[in-house]
């Protein structure tokens, strides 16, 4: 594995490169000329590593990251099943808004701890935080299986707080490590990894809904936890960093405020805040809406699976397109279409077919919006700050998801036509508003439609 050198402003970066060159040459058994690396170090230059963009090691990292998201974000994508079961059976004394706060807390911690975990990843890699997060996440689900009826505090602590911390320790490094192995195919690789969350959103809802009537809620959740454990063991064995790890952990480095001096990055943060404020509303409430419209339970229980099946496609195909056209050129129309679908298809949908069509299309376009944001962050950020920049954006996303989902729950405190209409309009308008802000970031690249951004 070789390194290409290019001029830079610091001598320190060159010395680090010299060490990295020696390590990588030694790994491949290549002899290097004595003093050749010192010659590079003698002038102020730094190095741009040559990315594998494929090969057994790179794709094994993708497999590990895929299984990590399958077992973390995939469970979050299945929260609609928990929401429905809690409202109707286990936590009947609690309001829908309060119950949805459990799922929102998972998302808040998943994204909100991103700045801290992203910076730790930049310095130490994934060797410690991945196994730690895996143990915490599996333990948390075991505790959920022991939750007692109408004791909502138990679910807040286990499923909201503990599980949220565990999956955050897994999610951030699983996405950030892809930047160590891919450059030209980065959006495609991240798309494949992100599709793991959609597959999890297919498997876990079906698993839980089929097992709960057979073996009860407790054992159904334990089966899900054992499935998570198996996948996360593989993730811990395959995920590895490749580039030299740099710096030390300082509190001032965990949120990379320098990034917000770039107007594209700042606008991405604002657009993502608006988008994620309402993005997960259909994931939590489309099944409840279908029940309200009288859809057969045999069909409505598969709506989350349908939504996430199309999410699998939307993670991979738009990712491949983004490598050719630029991530923002795909992210922008998918974001706006997510809002348009809510207003033009979900709002008037009353029968089974319109609801199913909306669910499938929303799964496709919203899934693309979720998976392409990391690709765009990577495309406009310095390579050694991918983790911190990624975490800083998702700190904003954390706040929006924490507030947004319970806000949506407040709209449907009463299950009727009027309240659902307000919920759907709220969701659609915010998604379109987020897309409008992203369009300004796109214009900062170029006004030409065919410009790769």
UniProtKB/TrEMBL annotation:
It is found in: Membrane. One of its GO terms (molecular function) is transmembrane transporter activity. It is a multi-pass membrane protein. GO terms for cellular component: membrane. Keywords: Membrane, Transmembrane, Transmembrane helix. The keyword Membrane applies. Pfam families: MFS_1. Residues 57-445 form the Major facilitator superfamily (MFS) profile domain. The chain crosses the membrane at residues 58-79, 99-121, 128-146, 152-175, 187-207, 219-239, 265-286, 298-318, 330-349, 355-378, 390-411, 423-444. PANTHER family: MONOCARBOXYLATE TRANSPORTER (PTHR11360), RIBOFLAVIN TRANSPORTER MCH5 (PTHR11360:SF177). Belongs to the major facilitator superfamily. Monocarboxylate porter (TC 2.A.1.13) family. This is MFS general substrate transporter. It comes from Neolentinus lepideus HHB14362 ss-1. The lineage of its organism: Eukaryota, Fungi, Dikarya, Basidiomycota, Agaricomycotina.
